[in-house]
Design a protein that fits this description.
By secondary structure, the chain is α/β, with parallel strands linked by helices. It has helices at about 5-20, 55, 75-85, 105-115, 125-130, 135-140, and strands at about 30-35, 35-45, 95-100, 115-120, 145-150. InterPro entries: APOBEC/CMP_deaminase_Zn-bd (IPR016192), CMP_dCMP_dom (IPR002125), Cytidine_deaminase-like (IPR016193), dCMP_deaminase (IPR016473), dCMP_deaminase-rel (IPR015517), Deoxycytidylate_deaminase_dom (IPR035105).
């Protein structure tokens, strides 16, 4: 019997968590780990106990900001990091698994939180139709290993 690696388990969990999102545009999941233990989880959506985009704006989603992004939602990485910090977790040296590569603002948060490795499944640049994954470039430039997860 072949056992899945922890990397596979955590990426599978991030993929499953994405299905919890109420966003009608994109579903993204994230898992924060340290030493093969889960610290926190998150998925994209508005702050808890506010509203659900698929219920309030079915089919079209929440209002967009000037860059065409959700104006009300937190990204999956933000939700995972905020929940961890809220509960006193030490993120120094942690690993993040996410279904979409981090945008630049999330990458700055990841770097500042002390997370040292990021695995992602799909490209944010390809999703947004932009030239490069500037968040991934930022992380790799400043010592956080950010790589596409390969099976």
């Amino acid at each position: 019997m072949t056992k899945l690696s922890f990397d596979h388990i955590f990426m599978n969990l991030a993929t499953d968590l994405a299905k919890r999102s109420h966003c009608v545009k994109a579903q993204v999941g994230a898992v924060l780990t340290k030493d093969t233990r889960i610290i926190s989880i998150g998925y994209n959506g508005p702050p808890a106990h506010t509203h659900n985009c698929d219920e309030e704006w079915p089919g079209v989603g929440c209002p967009r900001d000037s860059k065409g992004s959700c104006s009300l939602a937190l990204h999956a990485e933000e939700n995972a990091i905020l929940y961890a910090v809220k509960n006193g977790a030490n993120l120094e040296g942690a690993t993040l698994y996410t279904t979409l590569s981090p945008c630049l603002p999330c990458s700055r948060l990841i770097y500042s939180a002390g997370i040292k490795k990021v695995f992602f499944d799909r490209s944010y640049a390809a999703y947004k139709g932009i030239a490069s994954d500037e968040g991934v470039d930022f992380l790799n430039k400043f010592g956080v290993t950010a790589v596409r997860f390969s099976v």
